[in-house]
Amino acid sequence: MKRTPQSQAPADADARRAIKPVICYPVDTLPEPNRATYAAARKTMELTDEVIVPPRDAQTFHVPSGNFFRIVSVDGPQVGDLNLWSADDLSERFYSGKTRALHGTHLSTGDHMWSSFPHMRPMATITYDTLDWYGFDADGGGVHDVIGTRCDPYTSRLLSGQDYHYCCHSNLTRALAFETGLPLHRAEAHVHDVLNVFMCTGFTHEKHQYFMKASPVRPGDYLEFFAEIDLLGALSTCPGGDCSTEHSSDTATCYPLRVEIYRPDSKMLLRWVPPEPSAYTRSHGV
User: Residue 260 in contact with residue 48, Cβ under 8 Å?
Assistant: First the structure.
């Protein structure tokens, strides 16, 4: 929340505010996703596995490189918090901040989910989004954000003085610990900022506070990805349900989500090459 200014505006305040913005990371030089290859491969894909994520819980799933996966709304409007790791190395994980800097606050078809330093490569590419019609509404809200970090017990404790264990951070921690056999405290260190799947969010016009509103998702909607590398994923069904009222509580109506894994005909991927980690030397000027 912005306080009342205590400093007097200088004479050229309006001129300073009127300076045109500059895009921090122009993406014209980024490799374009091979949309034609993805589109052709999608036509041949067959369902190989599915995972149901119960309300207020999380589940892990595996996706081999060159396969697709979908997050599907099944029984009612529900948002989900997605974590991704390299299946071979938990230290390579989804980097929401850099993805936001490159692709914007909300993701959709054609956007990559980039991995953390020093790897910095596409982990997955969004190949279909049944909610891409939503765009940005009059409040500035959009769907599938990389703004919010995930609901967590630490912020909940800070704001309410109460412990809440079925927030997305804790859900993801339990799921990863169960999957890997790591102790909770070690698994927690690998849980990271998320892609808020189906969540409708933005910043208020007046104070630029992060807001959420009722998700437009309905049963049958899905967000689809192509796995650029071997992936371990974890998805939490947010305790906020469709996030129309609050999160981190037991009062919202919540529904399950389904993760579907699809394998395409390998002949359709002959022109696809898995991305290599960043070629930066890591010398850091020394």
Answer: no
Contact yes or no for 190/136 (Cβ under 8 A)? no
Decide: 179 and 230 in contact? Cβ < 8 Å: no
Query: CA–CA separation, 122 vs 280, rounded Å?
Result: 15
Percentage of the chain modeled with pLDDT above 70 = 99
Question: 61 Cβ partners below 8 Å, 6+ apart?
Answer: 49, 51, 69, 232, 233, 234, 235, 259, 261
Place of tokens 């505010």: 17
pLDDT digit string, tens, across residues 31-55: 888 899 999 999 999 999 999 999 9
Summarised one tens digit per residue, pLDDT across range 10-21 is 999 999 999 999
CA atoms within 13 A on the CB side of 20: 2
All residues at 6 or more sequence positions from 11 whose CB lies less than 8 Å from its CB, including other chains: none
CB 79 within 8 A of CB 197: yes
Q: How far apart are CA 62 and CA 84, in angstroms?
A: 10
- CB 68 within 8 Å of CB 95: no
In sequence order, what are the residues at sequence separation of 6 or more whose Cβ sits closer than 8 angstroms to the Cβ of residue 55? 78, 237, 239, 254, 255, 256
Q: How many other C-beta atoms can be found within 10 angstroms of the C-beta atom of residue 258?
A: 16
Nearest to 91 by CA among 277, 224, 279: 277
Strands 257-263 and 89-93: unpaired
The tokens of 120 are what? 């910095």
- Sheet with 257-263, strands from edge to edge, namely 46-53, 257-263, 68-73, 222-227, 122-129, 112-114
What does the block give as tokens for 136? Answer: 């940005």
**Residue 59: Cβ within 10 Å count:** 21
**What does pTM read for this prediction?**
0.96
| Nearest partner of 124 among 81, 91, 95, 88, judged by Cα | 95
